[in-house]
Each structure stands twice: as structure tokens, then as C-alpha cells.
Amino acid sequence: MSDDYPLVKNKFMVISRSKPISEQVNIILRDRICDADYAPGERMPSESALSVEFGVSRATIRTVLAKLAVEGLILRKQGNGTFVNERIEEINTHLGGLWEFAQLIERSGFEVSIEPRAIEIVSATKEEARVLAINQGDELLFLKRLFFADEQPVILAKNLIPISFLEVPMKMIDGSLRIREIMKRYFDQKISFVTVGISSAIAENSTKKLAVEKNAHLLNLSMRFYSEKNEPLAIGDNYLNDKLIMPRFVQTWH
Amino acid sequence: MSDDYPLVKNKFMVISRSKPISEQVNIILRDRICDADYAPGERMPSESALSVEFGVSRATIRTVLAKLAVEGLILRKQGNGTFVNERIEEINTHLGGLWEFAQLIERSGFEVSIEPRAIEIVSATKEEARVLAINQGDELLFLKRLFFADEQPVILAKNLIPISFLEVPMKMIDGSLRIREIMKRYFDQKISFVTVGISSAIAENSTKKLAVEKNAHLLNLSMRFYSEKNEPLAIGDNYLNDKLIMPRFVQTWH
DNA sequence: GAGTGGTCTAGACCACGCT
DNA sequence: GCGTGGTCTAGACCACTCA
User: pLDDT by residue (tens digit) across A162-173?
Assistant: First the structure.
């Protein structure tokens, strides 16, 4: 007999002990919202009703609903109820997922594809060396990738990683993976946190693949990746064609 | 005897029943971090130690720490401890506070001032009417304000609000208040949620006060404000000189 | 007044990292 | 093994909204 015995049966899936209960409930409720089982604008079942349905405590239900509220999927009203956000359609990201580029493109209604454009060795500039806490001229792995929305290039993603971390031959690297997976698989480094800067930029040579017009303006997401020990692991420099893909999300106040 | 009896005495303040306990603990811990009582990179007291110190349950401490973690002030490591983020200095905002412009400017190390530039009536364009669910040509209150960082204009904030909501004479409006306060005080409307779009923009006539150079690029935050009933309340159109004020924040992964 | 979400407690056990 | 944070329970009372 496995540890994976069912706790509650449900139209779509079965709650088991294999993953945290809250995560499984999260998936079920998310599905119900996406499938419009709970229609946009509609009041959802109360916390206590849900805790009875899934056979879990109200606290567990609350942690799930809190996450969905942060993403903007639901709106909570004290003394009234929990409602499905009627404007889900206008949203393509949330505050914790701005850099999930593939997801951002998909939720904007396009088909995603990723094309590695370059995997090569470069020398660190002074500024890059400063940020990565290495020496100027030290070797970096330079990873350049293009994200497409329906065959149209929309995001240029550039990453720089100190070559000293690299644990496999460069040719083995699969450039279509996301950066977290790349750091883990080929560099054996776990990203603990990221700092992100948002700014605008003018299209120039390196971004000409993206911009149709000359002097077009792009959205720039400048990221720095750090380990658990606060060591710099990598730099990310990303350009979005915001005419096609504009990040849009929901914010609520307590 | 008041309801406000002290629960715990502390170097800086006293915990009482006047506000939620978690909010008060939040303020105390936030202060300790800012004052470097808990120094950057240092391990903080454990959850159980804090719950003993403040005489509250561990669950309460956890809700506080969760909020601080979302803002990037602390980093949590299972099996190890809770640490003050060593990179606080590089951060000037967090994911839930991107539109607190005054705070953004202050945390970037400048002195803030706000100057109302225009409070007038305009006619709704077709697009504005669509977003606000009114008729083209309907009257809107147009509010234009400039945010300064050390005497240097850095953010242009434009708001459009249907005049039909207005409950006081236009001249009474204090243009230096934040939009939530303005909506509440003069329009008797409570903002329940906001959708925010992030893009880049080229400086043009309306933004020439901001941009030093011609054709400079700016960061645009395009907002739509909604009531609890999902009715559109206002439009916000904001331009940041991201050469001077670049939003930078921390993101962690579960 | 009835029902909702918001706050809080005092336990329990688990997963993980360190040493 | 021990201490950390992560998950979860079964209660309680409060604040708020709506009929």
C-alpha cells in the first residue's frame, strides 16, 4: 500500500499525500476558475464550504486563496465573499511571474517558441566583473536566445555566467531551457533570489532582430541572480517588444 | 482602563490591542532591520524565539515573516534560518508597491516633492470612454502632477476620472494627495483593485518636462482603477525618467 | 442576525541543513 | 541528532456586509 492514498475524490483529480495538500487544492481551484466552473465575477464557495468539500482545515484553504488573490485570479471581500476576477482576460502575468517569458507570451494569446542564437565565451567588461564579483577579462558564458510569439520575435534574452562554474562541455548546453534549469543542470548552482530592474531602452544593433522600426523603444528587464550564500551567479539582460507583449497584471490593496 | 493595554514591552514600542498584533510586530521587525539591529546578511532569531519574545503564536510570527520575505527584506532557508537580505541597499521598491511613487523616489536616495500641474475638465476620447465604460465626449477630471527627486522632475502622473463621480467643487481638490485618497475623499469611491501595464515610451510634448534630451525613452505605467463592483473608476498614465529612477526589486522562488 | 472573510492560538508532524 | 522553517489541524473570536 502506497503512501499515496486518496483523501478526497474530485471531478478532476484525487487529493493524495504525495504533494502538499495546499498545492493540490491550489491546482484544483485554479482549474475550476480557468474552466469557468467558477465563472468570472461569480462568488466562490466560502472558506468553510471549501474546507468541508476537500476535508482540510480552513487555514489550509486560506493559504491557497491567499496565493490566488496575489496572482489576481480572485478578489476577497470581508463580510461578503470571494469572487472570481472578471478581468482575468486582460492579464497575462502576475507579480511573482514577470520573468516567466514563455508563460507571458502564451497568456497574451500566442504560440511560443524559443530559438538559441548564440552560446559562446566572452570576456567580462569592467561593469560585468563588478556585478559578478570577478576580475575584468575573466571568461563568461554568453547565452543569447530569442522568444517568438507566433513566429514573430518578441523577447531577446541575454545571459552571462562565469565560466568557472561550468561543469560540462559547452556544446552540451540546451539553450531552450529556462535559466534556473540551466544554472542547476550545467553549473550545479541553485538560484536563491534575483534582483530585477525595469527600464526602457532604444533598439540598437543587438536588438535589431526584435524591432521592426528603427529607434523603436523596448522594455528592458535587467536581472542579477544570486545563490543562497549571496554570491552573484549570473546576469540577465532582457528586451521585450512591448508593442506585441506588454506585461499586464492585477494589484489589490490589503 | 482602555482596551489598549500593553502585551509586550519593547525597546521601541509597546504591543497593544489597538491594531492587529501582526501589523505591530511587522513594524518592529522592519525597524530592527532598517536600524541594522539585525545586520544585513545576519541570521535572525528563529520563529519560535520571536514568538516567545513577543508573546504571540508562531503562526502570527510566520504571517509577518512571510510579508517581509515578499518585500525582499529577508530570505528564508528551510533547515537553516531566516536571514536579512544583504542587498537591501540595491532595492527601491517591491512587487506590491511599484506605484508608491513617493516611496520609490525616497528609497532611491532623493528628497521627494509633488507639484500639481493641472486640474481641469476634458472630454473623453473614444478609447478613454471604452475603458471607463462611459460615452465618448463625456466630461473627465484631468489631473496632472509632477514628482520631483531633489528638485529634478522624474515622474509625470496623469489621471482621468469621470466627473460624474465628483462630489465637491473642483477647486477644493488637493492635487498632492495620492490617487486612492483623492478617489475616496472627493469622489467617495473606494479603489478595490488595479490593473497595471508596463511598457516603454518615447518622450513627447506632454512629457517634455521630464526628459532632458529629445527622443529620450521613458518607462510607462498604465493603470486602470476599479471598484469592488468591478466598475472602472479612473485611468492612470504615468511616465518615469528611468535614468534617474529605475524600479528595482527582489524576487525569490518558493 | 446570519454569514462572510480576517486574526490568532496552541498544539502536531514533516522536510531540510548543519555538524 | 538537533534546530530550522514548511505544512496542517481544530478550534476561537473579531470585523465587516448584507438582507
Answer: 998 888 888 889
Q: Are B98 and B196 in contact (CB under 8 A)?
A: yes
CB within 8 Å: B248 and A198: yes
Based on the domain organization, do A199 and A178 belong to the same domain? yes
A53 with A107, same domain?
A: no
Closest residue to D17 by CA to C1' distance? A79
Among candidates A109, A142, A111, A108, which has minimal Cα distance to A124?
A142
Residue A14 lies in a domain: no
Distance between CA atoms of residues B66 and B64, nearest Å: 5
Helix H segments across A99-241? 101-107, 126-132, 179-187
Q: Is A2 within a domain?
A: no
Q: pLDDT digit string (tens) for A144-192?
A: 999 999 999 999 999 999 998 888 888 889 988 989 999 988 998 999 9
Residue B48: count other Cβ atoms within 10 Å of its Cβ.
Answer: 10
The CATH number linked to A200 is 3.40.1410.10
The predicted model gives A78-97 an average pLDDT of 92
Residue A86 with chain B: CB contacts under 8 Å: 230
Q: Is 0.85 topped by the overall pTM?
A: yes
Contacts of A72 (CB under 8 A, 6+ apart): A85, A88, A91, A94, A249, A250, A251, A252, B193
Supply the range of the domain harboring residue B43. 21-90
